[in-house]
Structure formats: structure tokens, C-alpha cells
Amino acid sequence: MEETARHPLVLARLALGMTMEEFVSGIRDAAARRGLRSGTDEARVRKWQRGVRPSEESQIYIAEALGWPADIVRADDWPNWIPLTADGVIPFGPHSSVYALREALRTAMERRTFMTIPGTALAALAADWAAGPATALARARDGKPVDEDFVALLETTGQRLGGLATEERQHAPALLDACLSTVTDLLTHGHCTPAVGLRLHTLAASLAQTVAWHRFDQGRHTHASQYWIAGLHNARAAKDHDMGAGLLGDLAYQAAWRHDHTTAVHILNHALTRANNPAARCLLQLRLARALAAQGDRSERRTVLRALAAAEQHLSDAGTDRPAWCAWVSEADLAVDSGQALLDLGDTGRAHQLITEGEHLLPTARDKTRGVFLAYRAASYLDLKEPEAAAAAASQSLLLARRIGAPRCISLIDGLLPRFQPYSRTQGVSEFLQLAVV
């Protein structure tokens, strides 16, 4: 009965608040729209839930009955193509860490993105995370024992793939996906000791975060969200509060990138309730300051400055014992993010100074971040009405982004192009505009 209750068909139907009777009726209606008749009844649905595979035609009817387009169906991958939620957010529960991973992997296989996860759902998930675990983590009782040496191999592989420089990492997505899929299979079907299970959940969270940033850099936002959510579930299963806070911080960063600063602020406030490591808190406070400043409410100036001051204090308190996902946070990030927040508050002179200082402090190993910082510097020069300097910084950012394969940097520069148009005849700007269209 437990496996039946956990079947994706059951989960998807319940997520939509759909009764069995309504579901069966929806299948029959899908057939009727094609001038056909379906003999599906509740008994047949229960057989599907117990492992009987529906025909491809029936799977198409199932998709439409659940409100999804027919082209979501991959008949040879039943039932893994079935979405498990109505809004893309898996709620926390004893099996949710595996469900969330499966949902992320399923979403990544879709040829197109037809669902955007609402900010309200993300904020609610953050609030649920902040409230603490409500249920015990389920453990697989069947399956082959998971070998610790194999787990160690996966951990080493994940660490090396995640630590690649951007220029090399652009060639690694398939390897990362395969590694995460393997970890998911072990969590789903393997029998592990509590200690090994903890390591697998920790590894799943780390891999999901790395894959999410790949998807985000490529502009595949729904896919990125699903991986960050999957990472959050597994960080929670591993009882790693700092990692969970960091994954919420990533979701907040994405919300701010998409100009949903209200959602970003809500998520970050929840994340800060359970983050302990000073480097983690520094990063979260910087993102909170950026999100608050970007809301455009000058009355929040004091709140922004308090967040920046807290970030500075946390960075000074941070030693070498840092989580891997925020080990890179440095004076360079503090300077640039502070400058960007001040830029949104209208303090362009000080903002430009900080952004320039931060870019110079950045080590050569972080070229993708350098590209982003250069784009920020170009924006600050435009605010100062210095188009020649802005064009020089934007050109550097664009050339760097193209060399290392950093689409997000290119997107930032593309967003600045309309601001360069009034200066199209200015020395350096025309050359930059020509470079941008190549």
C-alpha cells in the first residue's frame, strides 16, 4: 500500500486536489475530444498505480486529464514523466528528498518549459524550511547495500566537477547530470546505513546546487529552480542548515534576477533564521541588501545599510572553516555587492568606487564573476554618464563571457545595450555596439 500511495500518478492527482472520479472522467473526456471512447475506470487506474504500464494513448489521456500538454509524455519512461506537483514545489515530507530530485531530473528532460514556479510558492517553502523538520526521514528497507567506496568515488567526482573553472565547467553538464542521477537511484533503491544515507543526501544537495547554477547561467530558470528545491530537500534530510540557507539564498538570487525582489526578501529573511556560519550569513546579508535596494524604496535605506554592515562584520568573523558553497566569499564580493546596492540607492559615486575596487580584488580563478562585475562596472559608468569607460568595461565583460562560455554575463551586457544607443557616435561606443551584434 505504501508503494501505491507513493506512485507519481497518485501524487500528481492529489497535488491538484483531484478525486479519483474526476481523474477518470478527465481521461474519458480526453478520449472523447478525439472522437474516441476510453474504457478507463477506477480499477484500471489502480492497476496502473500498482505497476501495470498504460498504453501510449492512455498516457496521453492521463497527461491531459492532469492539465498538462500531450507532448510532455514519454511513453517509454512511465511513470517518471508525470509531474508530481501543481506548482513545481514539492512539500517537505519523509520521502520528499527523493521526490524533489526525481522532479528536477524529470523537468530537465522536457524540451520546453511551460511552467513558472510562483514566488508565493517559493516563499511558502522557505517559511516551511525555517519552521524546522516536521517528519522523520524515511529509509529504504529493500534493495542492494550501498558500497561506501562507491559513495566516496561519487563524492570525489562531484567535488572535482563542482570545482572546475567556468571555462572547463561548460563542458561538464552531462557528467554532473549523470552523477546526480546515480545518487538519486541509490537513494531510491539502495539500502544504506544512516551514515551513508547522510553522505548521499549531502552529496545530492551539493550536486543539485551546482547543476542549478549551470541551468541558471543558461537562462533555464524553471530547471534551475527545480534543482535548487531538490537540493534544499536533501540539505534538510542531511540536517545541514547552512547548506539549506545557501540554497534558499540561490533561489532568492534568481528571484531578484527576474526582478521579483519582494519574493527574494521574503526568502532571504527565512534563510537567515537558521544560517550559522559567518561566511554563509555574509552572503545572505549581501543578497538581502541588494534585494532591498533594488525594490526602489528609499525609505529602506537604513535597512539596506544595516544589512551591508552585518555582511561586513560576518566576513571579518569568517575563518577558514567555511562550507564549500560559500568558501569563495571575499572582500571583492563585499565591495561589488555593496556598490551595486548603493547604486540602486542613488549613491553613484561611492557605488562606482566600490565596484571598481571589487573587480580589481577578484582573483583570476573567478573569471565568470569577473565578467559579471565588469558588467556592473559598465552600468555604474553609464549612471555617471561616462559612456567611453562604460563601453570599455562592457567590451571586456562580453569578450570574457564569450571565451569562457558564460551566457549570464552576455545577458547582462545585452540588457545594457539600449542605454548605449544615445551615445552611438561616441568614441568606443560604436565599436562596442558592433562587437555586441557579432
How does this structure look, described?
- By secondary structure, the protein is mostly helical.
- Among the domains are: 1-86; 96-276, Serine Threonine Protein Phosphatase 5, Tetratricopeptide repeat.
- 68% of the residues lie in helices and 0% in strands.
- The protein contains 22 helices and no strands.
- It is globular, with a radius of gyration of 24 Å.
- It starts with a helix and ends with a helix.
Q: Topology, pairings included?
A:
Elements: H1 2-6, H2 8-15, H3 20-32, H4 42-49, H5 56-65, H6 96-108, H7 119-130, H8 148-162, H9 166-169, H10 173-189, H11 194-217, H12 221-237, H13 241-257, H14 261-272, H15 278-294, H16 301-317, H17 331-345, H18 348-361, H19 367-383, H20 387-404, H21 407-420, H22 429-437
Helix pairs in contact: 3-5, 6-10, 6-12, 7-13, 7-14, 8-10, 8-11, 10-11, 11-12, 11-13, 12-13, 13-14, 13-15, 14-15, 15-16, 15-17, 16-17, 17-18, 18-19, 19-20, 19-21, 20-21, 20-22
